[in-house]
Design a protein that fits this description.
Elongation Factor Tu (Ef-tu), domain 3; about 240 residues; four-stranded antiparallel beta sheet; elongated; mainly beta; about 5% helix
Amino acid sequence: MSIYFKYGNYAHDAGECQVTIARSANKGQDGLTIIGYTTRYTVAGVIQGTSTSDITAKLRALEAAYAYNSKDFGLYDSATGQTAHWVRASASDVRVVEGPTYPKGDGAEYVTGRTYQIVIEAQTGVTVPGLYDFSETVTISGGGQRVVWLETLNGPPQKQITALQTLCTVVQQGKASSATTWPPPASQLFPGSLMEMPTITYSSPQTLDTGRKINYQTSWNYQFGLPTRVNPRPHANQG
């Protein structure tokens, strides 16, 4: 049994490289909701060769293998197959973010071997359907007396009530984001009291380096007119 690193169809020799893994959470626009994870694999090793031309041929094969994104990769067990540190490109966004680079140039470099480093990132969890960000505000104005102040020629301003009851205006606005498609706007608080047609905005999704699109955002703005003062609350989630 041997453990080795593999990227696509390219297999590193067993014991050739060290693999370190760092994982960080990706947050939604609210800064709190976890919508996925970015896992960074750093692959550092030494290509061994019997001659300069042998090393050159192996380096060309290495560079050709990592010239493309969206490949399955990870630690592979020759006896049992894929290990826990294996990433399927079909379930995540895989990209080569660095390398191969060659961080050393001293000693026996390019004589008996060549030191290299490669960094690969995989974003997982971003294709889970459903909302990962939702916010809404409700602004209420009017509904009571209208008071005006009249300036006089020789005295202080005079207070006058011009209406005992004014129109209550409610503005409901918000936004929601989803990973896979534009979410529908939130339901209207007072659908029978719209003052004008709703304003709905659909924003272009974010495009990842691999070409996959995420973060489809929909925003809405509703204005209602009501005969009496009301105190509605915004939705806590999609409603």
